[in-house]
Design the sequence.
C-alpha cells in the first residue's frame, strides 16, 4: 500500500513528531489529530519571505513559480501569515531541488520513497523546503504533483507536524486531491491557527471534515458495488468495509482513482461488463476496478439518451440478471437496457409508482442479493424487488459494523 500511495513525505524534523496513530475509534466525533513540531517552533512574524534557489527541469519555470505561490496561498488563506517571493537577500523559506545527499544529514533516496522534506521554523536552514530532484514533478494528477507536495512541506516550514486525519493535507502519505484547489481539512486549519491564530479574513475559512463511518448523521453521495465489495462516496472520500477488517476504511477518492473528480454524485457497477460508471453533473467516467478508461468524461446525453433537461443523476444501480440499469433523477427514474444499449420506452416514471415507501428523491442506491438499498438523508431503505415494497429501514451506516445504537 505504501508503494502505491506514494511515500512517506518526511525528513528529519518531522520524523520526531510523526505519529501514525490508529484511526479514531468509531463514533468519536471530531477527533482533533493535528500535531505541532516538538517544542512548538514558530515564526515570530506574520509576513514571511521565500526564495526559489533552483528549478527542476521537469517543469517550466513559471509552473514551478505557480505551484509554489499556490501552495503558500493554501496556508495564507487560513492564517494571518503572508508570503512574499524575494530574489535578493536571504529568505525565511528557501526552496530547492536536490539530488541524493545534499549535506543536511537527510539524503534523498532516488525515485519514490521520500519526496521532499522541510525544516521547522528557525534561522538558517530553518523553514527551508527541499524536493528530491529524482522525482518527476508534475502539474497534473500524475506522480508527483509539485503543488500538493509543496503545500504539505510548507506546513512543516510553518511548524506543523503530521496529522492522523487521512483527509488532512498534513497526513504523512501523498494524497493528491485536486489540481487547482487543495481542500484543507478542518484539522489542518485548527493546527495552523493553534500556532498563529485566526485568519484576518472576515469570513473564517472552514475545512472539510473527514467522514466517520459510525457518525449517526452520515449521509452518502453515491454507492456502488465493486467486484463484491461496496464503496460509499462522500465528498473527497470513499468508505469501504472489507470483510477482513473490523473497521471501515476511509480514504481519498483520488488515492484510488486519481483522474476522478471529488463529489461523485452517482455510481453503479455493470458486472457482466466488469465496469463501474461514475456520474457527476452531466458527465460520466468508466473504470474497470482502479483503471479509469481514457477518453472520459463523456456526457450522459449521447450514451444513455437522456434529454438535455437532465442535468445530473441523483443515484443509479444496475441489476445483474436483467441487464437493466436504473437512474434516479429528482422524483423520477429511468431504465436503461445494457444489452440493447438504449433507454427503455415509457420512461421516466415517477419513483413513487414502482418504489413506494422510499420517498420522492434518493441520495444513493446499491444492490445486494437482489435487494435495492436506497439511501436518503440518514436513512436507508431495504427494498424487495419481487414484493415491490420496503422491508426494512436502517441507519445509513449499517454496513460498517458500528454496533447497536
Ligand atoms: Zn510531512
Ligand atoms: Ca525520493
Ligand atoms: Zn534537505
Sequence:
Amino acid at each position: 500500500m505504501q508503494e502505491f500511495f506514494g511515500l512517506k513525505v518526511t525528513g528529519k524534523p518531522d520524523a520526531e513528531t510523526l505519529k501514525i496513530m490508529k484511526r479514531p475509534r468509531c463514533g468519536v466525533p471530531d477527533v482533533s489529530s493535528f500535531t505541532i513540531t516538538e517544542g512548538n517552533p514558530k515564526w515570530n512574524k506574520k509576513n514571511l519571505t521565500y526564495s526559489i534557489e533552483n528549478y527542476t527541469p521537469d517543469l517550466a519555470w513559471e509552473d514551478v513559480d505557480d505551484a509554489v505561490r499556490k501552495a503558500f496561498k493554501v496556508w495564507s488563506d487560513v492564517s494571518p501569515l503572508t508570503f512574499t517571493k524575494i530574489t535578493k537577500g536571504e529568505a525565511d523559506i528557501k526552496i530547492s531541488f536536490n539530488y541524493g545527499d545534499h549535506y543536511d544529514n537527510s539524503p534523498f533516496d532516488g525515485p519514490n520513497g521520500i519526496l521532499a522534506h522541510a525544516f521547522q521554523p528557525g534561522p538558517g536552514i530553518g523553514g527551508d523546503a527541499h524536493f528530491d530532484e529524482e522525482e518527476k514533478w508534475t502539474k497534473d494528477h500524475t506522480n508527483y504533483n509539485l503543488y500538493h507536495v509543496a503545500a504539505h512541506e510548507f506546513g512543516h516550514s510553518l511548524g506543523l507536524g503530521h496529522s492522523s486525519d487521512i483527509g488532512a493535507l498534513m497526513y504523512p502519505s501523498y494524497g493528491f486531491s485536486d489540481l487547482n484547489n487543495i481542500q484543507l481539512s478542518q484539522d489542518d486549519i485548527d493546527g495552523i491557527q493553534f500556532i498563529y491564530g485566526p485568519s484576518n479574513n472576515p469570513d473564517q475559512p472552514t475545512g472539510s471534515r473527514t467522514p466517520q463511518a459510525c457518525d449517526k448523521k452520515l449521509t452518502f453521495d453515491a454507492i456502488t458495488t465493486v467486484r463484491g465489495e461496496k464503496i460509499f462516496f462522500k465528498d473527497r472520500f470513499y468508505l469501504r468495509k472489507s470483510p477482513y477488517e473490523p473497521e471501515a476504511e476511509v480514504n481519498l477518492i483520488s488515492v484510488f482513482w486519481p483522474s476522478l473528480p471529488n463529489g461523485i454524485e452517482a455510481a453503479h457497477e455493470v458486472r457482466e461488463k466488469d465496469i463501474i460508471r461514475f456520474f457527476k453533473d452531466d458527465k460520466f467516467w468508466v473504470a474497470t476496478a482502479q483503471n479509469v478508461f481514457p477518453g472520459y468524461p463523456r456526457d450522459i446525453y449521447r450514451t444513455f439518451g437522456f434529454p438535455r433537461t437532465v442535468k445530473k443523476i441523483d443515484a443509479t444501480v444496475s441489476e445483474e440478471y436483467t441487464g437493466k440499469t436504473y437512474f434516479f433523477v429528482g422524483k423520477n427514474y429511468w431504465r436503461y437496457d445494457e444489452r440493447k444499449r438504449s433507454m427503455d420506452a415509457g420512461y421516466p416514471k415517477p419513483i413513487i409508482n414502482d418504489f413506494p415507501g422510499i420517498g420522492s428523491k434518493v441520495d444513493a442506491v446499491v444492490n445486494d442479493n437482489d435487494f435495492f438499498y436506497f439511501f436518503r438523508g440518514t436513512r436507508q431503505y431495504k427494498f424487495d424487488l419481487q414484493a415491490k415494497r420496503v422491508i426494512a429501514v436502517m441507519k445509513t451506516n449499517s454496513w460498517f459494523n458500528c454496533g447497536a445504537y
Summary: DSSP finds eight helices and 23 strands in the chain. Confidence is low (pLDDT under 50) at residues 1-32. Residues 61-76 form the longest helix (16 residues). The CA atoms of residues 27 and 117 lie 34 Å apart.
